[in-house]
Amino acid sequence: MNWLVAHGRAARLALVRLAAAPLNTLLAVLGIAIALALPAGGYELLSQVSALGSGTVATPQFTLFLKVDGERKATQAVVDRLKERGDIAKILILLREDTLARMKAAEGLADVIAALQKNPFPDAIVVTPADDSPAAIEKLAAEARQWREVELVQIDAHWVRRFAALVNLARTGVLLLATLLGIGLVTITFNTIRLQVMTRQREVEVSWLLGATDGFIRRPFLWHGAQLGLLGGIVAWLIVAGATLWLQSPVAELAQLYGFSLSLQPPSVVDSFALLGVAGFLGWLGAALSMRQHLH
Amino acid sequence: MIQFDRIAKRYPPDITALSDVSAEIAAGELVTIVGHSGAGKSTLLKLIPGIERPTAGVVLVNGQNVGSLGHGALPYLRRNMGLVFQDQKLLFDRSVLANVLLPLEITGFPGRDAQRRAEAALDKVGLLPRAKALPVALSGGEQQRLAIARAVVHRPGLLLADEPTAYLDAATARDVAGIFIEFNRVGVVVLVATYDDSLFPGARRLQLDHGRLT
Ligand SMILES: Nc1ncnc2c1ncn2[C@@H]1O[C@H](COP(=O)(O)OP(=O)(O)O)[C@@H](O)[C@H]1O
Ligand SMILES: [Mg+2]
Fold this sequence. Notes:
The structure holds two protein chains of two kinds. Chain A is of the alpha+beta class. Chain A has ten helices and four strands. Chain A has two domains: 2-56 and 161-294, no CATH class; 62-156, Alpha-Beta Plaits (2-Layer Sandwich), CATH 3.30.70.3040. Chain A has helices at 2-20, 22-55, 72-84, 96-105, 110-115, 134-145, 158-199, 201-209, 214-257, 269-294; strands at residues 62-66, 88-94, 124-129, 150-155. In chain A, helix 2 (22-55) packs antiparallel against helix 7 and helix 9 runs antiparallel to helix 10 (269-294). By secondary structure, chain B is an alpha/beta fold. Chain B has two domains: 1-80 and 156-214, P-loop containing nucleotide triphosphate hydrolases (Rossmann fold, 3-Layer(aba) Sandwich); 89-155, no CATH class. Helices cover 31% and strands 26% of the residues of chain B. Chain B is built from six helices and ten strands; from the N terminus they run E-E-E-H-E-E-H-E-H-H-H-E-H-E-E-E. Chain B has helices spanning 41-47, 74-78, 96-106, 111-124, 140-152, 170-185; strands at residues 2-11, 15-25, 30-34, 56-61, 64-65, 81-84, 158-162, 189-193, 204-209, 212-213. In chain B, strand 7 (158-162), helix 6 (170-185) and strand 8 (189-193) form a beta-alpha-beta unit. The chains are: A alpha+beta, B alpha/beta. Bound molecules: adenosine-5'-diphosphate (ADP) and magnesium ion. Residues 11, 15, 17, 35, 37-43 of chain B line the site of adenosine-5'-diphosphate. Magnesium ion binds next to helix 1 of chain B.
């Protein structure tokens, strides 16, 4: 209870101090907001865009398309060759008749297929290697490409992998950015609190002489830092949410060109609270470091 | 209440402020510390709340060895003392009342009672009508009385004052000295460093000369 009262007093005092220097507060809050908005926005964009890739199954497999009018013997030969190997987990044979039948059954395609003079599809074999590393798949696919019966080898998950790699790279970038700007944020509160301690030197000294504990003296400064961080976090949230709405339709249009539907959303409730929590904590941290450096 | 046992205090590089000071101050006493400028009066007072630590010897306050108290324990020692500093150390960015409230905030005194106590302390030194003013608007004598109100607001058992009547005209000095005498009458131990102890009739005198008691 006493502890609560003490913190309540310190938090109120810190708010008064924030309001007492509106320009300094504004500058610090804007600096913090920008330092937070960049990585937070990047994170949001990434997590929403990367969800596109995860919808597609990135099964480690590839498809061998044989020659369009190749003989069934050739298909059998390829199947036998694959079965002899020890490094194949599974093969699925798609005979051209079956493919044609499936296409005929497909809504809207029946007429087109009926108009065809002959079956345009080749036999195909879907191969799942035992080793699902991208390198192993590449190697097997390259080997199959050399086979005379094989017209085309298509690695199905190719774009998903590339996309995932790209997202991974971007994620690392965002992490790096977040670290650097997080340090920036701590620096901003560190410095703001340093100035506060300097202007309140006399108050600090007198309080100490009159029997104030270190905790009593520190608390308002720590709250000040946390409040700056929190305010910065709120402004950063507004920036990110605003940018999301602003970018929503151009991004949706762009995504549509690539055959996806993507509607950017403002940060989720969990993400929003995480942002505010991190912001408040980093503000508090900057203040705590500043206290260590500048008190006594 | 307070015991000085063979105290020495040296400031770097080699200034001897006090040497071989032994004295005892009992409950209920009014004691003046007199001596020329630089005699060591302020230094002796600062040893009591642990603002300075003795280079040698022991200072006991209510049986507690002040010199051996850690940084974290000093605030609690000071809360039973009222300090009037030579340079007053008022906070000029807040009202007279807010200055007096500070010791109560420090001790975690609840809000409404604190307000009432602060006003009572201001009333005692005749400053209640100036409660809302800023300290700069006060005269020298009023500032001194404000410093006293702040020192006594938390009702300490021990009042330490460093030249509280310096720079005041004779009449004002007498008024201010009278306040200390009144507090002593109600049982507060009062220790005053002063150049003129005629203002404190009946006080016991500790005479310092170049850091030694004479
Ligand atoms: N913080 C300090 N650093 C160095 N010397 C000091 C300090 N405080 C006081 N002194 C010296 O110690 C001696 C005693 O000072 P002080 O206790 O202030 O005397 P008084 O209060 O009787 O004038 C003086 O010579 C003074 O210059
Ligand atoms: Mg002095």
